[in-house]
## 1
Amino acid sequence: MQALLSYDQSPPIAAPFRFFLTAPVFGILAGVLLLWSGADLFASRWTPEALALTHLITVGFMLQVMFGAMLQILPVVAGANMARPLWVSGVVHAAITLGTLFLVLAFLSFLPYWFTAAAVFLGAGVAVFIAAAAYALSGIPATSPTIGGLKLSLLGLAVTIGLGVALSLSFGASLNLPLLQLANIHLGWGFVAWGTVLLAAVGYVVVPMFQLTPAYPDWFGRGFSISALAIVLIWTIADFAAPDSVSMFSSLAVVAVAALFAGITLNIQWRSKRARFDATQHLWRVAMCSALAACAVWLLAMAVPALGEWPGWPLLCGVLLLFGGFVSVIVGMLYKIVPFLIWLHLQNQGQGRVMAPNMKKIIAEQAMNCQMLAHFVSCALLLLAVFWPEWFVYPAGLALIVAHGGLLLNLLAAMSVYRAHQQKIAAVIAAQSSQPHP
C-alpha cells in the first residue's frame, strides 16, 4: 500500500492547514453552545440547540478536517494533482466556514434568510471542492481501494450536501418537502456514504502505515465502498417507495455497513506490531468501539419498544457516533497527518542540507495524551448528560472547550515548530550560498 505514495506531489502546506486549524474552533463553539443552551438541548434530537450542535461538529469540525485531508491525500496517494490548490482551498474554506456559522444562526433563530445564506455558501463551497477533486481524479484509474473509495466518497458528499441544501431552502423559501424523512436520509448519506466511505478509503493507507497493522482484507477493500453506496441508495428508495418491512430491513443493512467497518478495523488493530500504543491508536480504538455501541443502541431501539419510545435514544446514538466515533478518529488522524506533513515539507525545503525534526518532536507526546484524555472525559460527560442533563450539561460543555482548545494549542505548537525550522533552513542555505566557491 505504501508504494502508492508520491511525496513529491504534496500541495503547499497552507492548503490543508487552514482547514485543520479552523476545525477545533468549531469544537470550542460547540462547548460554548452547551453552556449557553443548558439542559434544554437534550430534550430531543430536534431542538434548535441540538441541531446547531450537530452541525457545528459535522460541518464545522468534520468537514473542515476531511477537506484538508483530501487536499493532501488526492495528490500523494492517488496522484491526482488538484489545479490551483491554494485558490481552491481558500475559496472552499471561506465558504464553508461562513456557511457553517450561518447554519448555526439559522437553527438558533429560525429566520429564513440565515437558512438561505447557509444553503448558498455551503452549497457553493462544497460544489467547488467536488468539482476540483472530481476533475483531478477524472483521469486516474481506480487501481486501489483508496482511489476507488475517494471517488465514491465524492458522490456520497454530493448527495449529502444536496439534501442539506434542499432542507435549508425548505426553511428559507418555504418549500413543501417531507422534512423529517429527508433529514433522516441526509443523516444516512452523510454518516455512511460520505463519512464512513471516506474514512475507509483513507484508512486503507494510514492505518497500516502509521499503526503498523496488517492491511485490510482484500475482499473488504474491493467491495466495501461500492457496497456501502449501493446499500444507502437502496435504503433511500425503500424509505420513499417500499413497505415498512422492506425499509426497516434496508436501514438495518445501512447500520451493518458501519458496524462492519468498525469491526474489521478493530480486528486489524488488535494485530498491530507496536509494542506500546500511542494516542492515535487509542483514539482509533475508542472510535471503533463507540461506532459499534451506536449501532447496538440503534438495534435495541428498533427491537425494544420501551427504548424506542424514549426520546433520548437518538441523542445517545448521536453522541456515541459523532463525538466518540468520528471526532475521536479524526483527532487520531490529525496527530499523525500533521507531524508527517510538517516533516515532509521541511525535509523538501532542507534540500538535503538541513534535516527535518523528528516527527515525534513536532507535537509532544505528553501534550497529545493530555488532550486525548480531555476528549475522552468530554465524551463521557456528554453521554451522562443524555441521561441527566441538568447535572452534566455544563461540565460537558467545559470539557468540550478544554478538549478542543487543547487540540488547537497542539496544532499551533506544531506550526510553531514548522516556522522555526523554516527560519533555520533559510539561514543555513543563505550562509552556504554566501560562501565563495573555490
## 2
Amino acid sequence: MDKPVTLLGLATAVPPHILKQSDVVERARSIFAGRMPAFERLAQVFETAGIDTRQAVRPIDWYEQPRGWPERTQAYLDGACTLFRSAALAALEKANCRPCDVDIVVTVSSTGIATPSLEARVADELGLRPDVARVPVFGLGCAGGVTGLALAARLARAEPGRTVLMVTVELCTLSFRGDAPTKANIVATALFGDGAAAAVLRADGKPGPLTVRGAGEHRWPDTLGIMGWDIEDEGLGVIFDRSIPPFAEENIGPAVDGILRRLDGQRRDIGRFVCHPGGAKVIEALETGLALGQGRLVEEREVLRAHGNMSAPTVLFVLERCIAAGLPARSLVTAMGPGFTASAAILDRAA
C-alpha cells in the first residue's frame, strides 16, 4: 500500500514594490486614454476587480517605459530567483528541513524564460545538493500551483522517503504592454501581481497534519483561445476571453465531480473548496458553479484584495491562509488555467 504523502511545509513570498490600485489606474489612464476612446468605460475593471494592492518586482515607474525581451527577461531572472529563494527557505524551515535534505525540485513558472532553469540558478546559493533531481515545468499558467503540488505529491509517492520541494514563481506584471491598447491588456493591468509559493512533501509513513490524498485534471476540448500568452516581438501578449466567469460557472462543477469520482470521492465529502481567485467575477462564478453560496470564499477575496492575481502561486496563498484558519477533515484545492484546464488536489487533515 502506498504511503501517504505529507505536506510538511508551505510558504509564500512577494516582492518589495507595492502597487496601489488607485495609482495603477492613473498610470494606465496616462498611457492609454489618448489612444483608446473606450478606456474610461474599460477602466471600471480597476474598481470591480476586488483588488486594493499588488506587489511587483519593479517600481511602478519602470513599467511606463518601453521594454523589450532582454530587459523583461533580466527583470524576470532577478526577481524570480530572489522570490524562489525566499519561498523555498521559508517552506523548508516550516518543514524542519534543510536545503541539503531536498532530493527533488519541481519548478513551475510561465511568465518568463530561463535556461538554465530557476532551480539551477539558485541551487548553489540555496544549498541544494549536486545530485538533486530537477523538474522544471512551463506553460501551466494559473493552474500551475495546483498541478505543481500534485506532480510533487506523485513524485514523493513514487519515491518514498525522498523530500520533494515544489516552487512556483510568477512575475505577471512583466507582461505589461504599454504598446498594446487592447481590452485584454487593460484587464491584465488591473489584475496582475507578482509572487511565489513553495511546498515541501514527503511520503515516509510518518504522520503529518496534512496529506495529499490524490489529484486530477480536466481539460475541455476546443478551448485553447480562452487563456494564455501570445509570443510577440515586444513581449508576452495576454489572451483573455471575457467568457471565463460564465464558462467557470457552467463547467467547474461537472469537472470537479468527475475528478472526485476518479478518486473515489464526492463533492459532499469536501469541507472546504480552496480556489484560485482569478478575479472578483471568477470568485462569484466559482461560488455559484460549486454551489457554495455567495460570499463563502472569504480567504480567496482577501488574497485577491491584498495581492491581485499572481497566476500559479495565488491559490497556494489562499491555502496558506486556510491552513492558518484551520482546515476541515477534507479539502479540495483547485485552479483553472490554459488548456483550458481545471486542476484539483484533495488534502486530508490528520484526525
## 3
Amino acid sequence: MTSYPNLNEKIRINFFSGPKKRNSKSTSQIMCAHIGSLVWDGFNGVGPEKDHRVQCSQCGKRFGTDLEMWNLLSYQQKIKKILYELFILKYPLTGVAIRWEIKEQKLSQFKKSFVSQIFQQNSEVIEQKLKALPRGVILGDETYMGSRGNSNAEIVFINNIYQTLSTGPVDEGDLKESILKAFEKIPEACRKKLKILITDGEPSYKSIAKKFGSKVIHVAQLHNKDQRGEIIISKFKKLGPHFLHYKIYTHWKAFYRDKHELKFQWEIKFIKGKVQPKRGRPRNADKVQDKNAQWRQKLENYQSSSFKKEGTAKIYVNFKSNKLSMRKGAKKWIIHLLTPIFKIFKGTHITTNKMESKHSQIKRSGAGRKQRDKEYGHKLFTLHAFLVEYGYIPFTNLAGRPLYNFLMKNIKKKKIGYTILEGKRILVQTHLSGYE
C-alpha cells in the first residue's frame, strides 16, 4: 500500500477558491473552506426534475448540482495523492491510471493542464529565484529529455552546491543562442558574480566567457573518445574590437595528487573582430594621433615575430601552502589562470560530474521521457528541477474539478444538502444559510 508522508506540505493545491466565472483563471492564494457559507444559486433544468445549484457566498465558487462538502474534501485528497505519485514518487503515468481506474489519456491531459497552471501562477517562484554563487562558479551542460539522440534537449546551469540556477529548451539548429537565452534567465545579481564557468567541450559556451571578457575563466572538459580526460582552461581578453584568447591544455588529474611539478602546453590566439568604418569627413577628435593607441600597440606586439604565441611551461604545485609557483616557460597570466582552479579541484578530478549528477536527480525514472509538446516538456523538466531542491509543489489553485467523475463515480446520491466536519463525525446539514 502506497504511503503519502507530508502529503499536504508537499502537494500545496486548492480547488475551492477557483474561478468565479466559467473558463476564467484565478490566481488567488486565499483558502476558503466554505463551511457555513453555501447558498442556493438557481436551478439546473426545468420542471419537477430541476435541481438546485450551490455557491459559496464568501468566495463566489460554484459547485454545480447537489455536491456535498464531504465529497469535495475527499475528492481533493484523492487528487493530492495522484499528484504525489506523479511528481514526488515519480510513478509511471500508466501505472497511476490503472491504480485509480482513470483513462490514461484523461490523466495525461490533467497532468499537462496542471503543469501549465503551476507555471501560470508561480513562474517567478520556480524560474527566477535568486540563489547564492559560492566561489563564483557556474556549471553548464545540455541533457536529453529521454534517451540519447532525443531532439527535445534542455540546457541546465547550476552553482557549486548543486542548486539549479536556470533551465532552457534547445532550439534545433541554434544551440549558441539557446545557451545565451538560458544563461540570461539567471537573475542579474547572480550573473555578475560569475568568475569560473565549467562546461563540457561544446564550443557554444565560449560565447558566455567571451561576453564577460577577462573576468571569467572557462574550464572545458572534453568528452570525445580520442580526447577523453583532456581539459582546456581559458579566458578572453578584449583588445579594442578584437580578442586575445589565452588557453592552457592539461588533463583532469592535474591537481589530483601532490605531484609538485606540472607540465602543460599553452597558446594565445588572436580573434579578429569587426572594425566599423565611419562615413563622411573625420571629426577633429578622430584626428588625434594617439586615439586607441593602447590596444593598437598591444596588437602590434602580438603580431611581431618576437611575441611567443604558444609553448610549454612548468609550474610548482604546493599542496601545503595552496600556492602555484612559476618554473621554466611559465608566465604570470598562467599562474592567475590556474590558481582559482587549483583551489576548487585540489585533490579531486577536474570534471563536470556535478552537472551529470544533477541531470540524474532531475530525470530519474519516468520523469525525463520525450514529450511531443516541446514547451510542456521544458516546463515539466523545470518543475522536476524545482522538486529536487525544495520537495514540494508551489501553492496552486486548480481550476474546475478534473477527474471528478472518475474518482467519485461510486458515491451514492444523498438528500439535498452539504456536509460539515466536526472532529471525526460527519454531519449532514440540509439548511443552507442565506444572504444577509
